[in-house]
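Q: Give me the 3D complex with guanosine-5'-monophosphate.
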Amino acid sequence: MREIRGKPLSLLIDEGSIRKRVRELAREIEKDFSHSEGEPVVVGLLKGAFIFVADLVREMDIAVVVDFLWVSSYGQSTESSGVIKVLKDLDTDVEGRWVLLVDDILDTGLTLKEIHTFLLRKKPAVLRTCVFLEKEGRKKVDFNPDYIGFKVPNKFLVGYGLDWGEMGRNLKGIYAVES
Ligand code: 5GP
Ligand code: MG
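A: Here is the predicted complex, encoded as structure tokens.
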């Protein structure tokens, strides 16, 4: 059994299921974004979304620009406050363009809602959101992503970009950290 720092990991979503679902999402997004004038801009949130973005854009058969945004959320608590600090802004001017915001996981939704507002200020023509995972029954704000990979139970998850103290990002599946 795999483990991180002595804690066992249990497999929740395997590599094959991820590949299949990413392909489905790519088809759906590609179809919706085919109306874009000029190349759509895929904005991945660092660090967690880096693997999902890499897989998603490679499954898409349309020309896209890829950019990354890196924010940290203020506050000491393990739950996000929703107040963000931008560590790395976009390199691309997204005004008037079709933008797809991509994140790894939606928990309370506080962070993504704040980032969504931040990106709207840049006046994109269209702004849609895609999350790889959404935790069930955890949302604290009214924010609904346009595309969701998988709904997951309220457990702490690692793998496929998601970390536990920087460990576990390179795992090919999604695992729950068991205590
Ligand atoms: P939210 O603002 O939606 O509560 O927080 C979302 C962020 O919290 C995610 O982008 C991710 O960085 C982190 N997060 C939430 N749940 C998990 C989890 O189960 N595992 C990991 N590794 N990060 C999580
Ligand atoms: Mg994150």
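A quick observation: Residues 16-73+81-150 form a domain with the Rossmann fold fold (CATH 3.40.50.2020).
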